[in-house]
Amino acid sequence: MIRFILNRLLMALPTIALVAVTVFALIRLIPGDPAALMLGDMAQPDQVAAMRIELGLDKSMIQQFVIWTGNVLQGDFGRSIVNGEAVLPLVASRFMVSAEIVVIAVLLASVIAVPAGVIAAWRQNSLTDLALVGTATVLLSIPTFWLGLLLLLFFGLKLGWLPVLGYVSVGDNIAGGMLYLVLPIMTLVIHEMGVLIRMARASTLEVLRLDYITHARAKGLSESAVLWRHAFKNAFGPTWTVIGLILGNLLGGIAVIETVFTIPGLGRLMVDSIFARDYPVIQGCLLFVALSYVLVNLVVDLLYPFFDPRVVAE
């Protein structure tokens, strides 16, 4: 087990290094001069040159990367060009808003969809199976922004049950804050349920065809005992991997939902920073998203042996 954990940790280090290089290179490929943007259109050439020296933009790319990496390792992601605010606290605060939505949505989708997928596999080719698979296919086909707008129109404007615009921090007001999160969470839950139902069904069908399931049935165990006590644990391994991938993807790709519902999360911050050409914030957001994706998948890998002990043995 220890060897397995060490191998996964060592495999994550090159990935993180590659992520840092990629983020740094992508930002440098964006057209425009950060120094000129920071000083405005009326800046004189000597002022721009002085600002480039202050920002370290006069150095070679390798020197810039070494300096930037050293600063990042010390927790210094730079300062926003727009408002001068430190990037790391800004990105971290916005990330927590996105994480609230994503984590709750993935948990709810998993609790609903995984048992539904298992039941669909257990009742293969029945009306229940066809209904669940058909529902999952429909949910997968609906774009999240369109689904969000429909929920906003129905529950917000027509029924008036939930707020349409704005945001209240859950830390400041738990009840009021959750009201603003219901619709974005519901949108993500409905969409991701389609993926999880299909994955849970496919993995459960594969396990139900194995010999030990036939042996368990031959011993006279009830179908519910065979399904939940013997099949579910082994079938959940591949689904757990998909849950991790969904969690990582949503942490980095929630910008559309946050834009639709005006949620001040990390995705919204990234979109606003791109329009404002706020390079330090864009760089910080990209690095934060990439690192969170790597860390989420690392945790998924480390927990996988609890669902499938054969992984450690291999």
From TrEMBL:
| Highest taxon above the source species | Bacteria
Q: Where are the transmembrane segments?
A: 9-30, 95-118, 130-157, 177-197, 239-261, 281-304
Tell me, which GO biological process terms does this entry list?
transmembrane transport
Subcellular location per the Swiss-Prot or TrEMBL entry: Cell membrane
Q: Which GO terms describe its cellular component?
A: plasma membrane
| Family (UniProt) | Belongs to the binding-protein-dependent transport system permease family.
This one is known as ABC transporter permease
- Species this protein is from: Rhizobium sophoriradicis
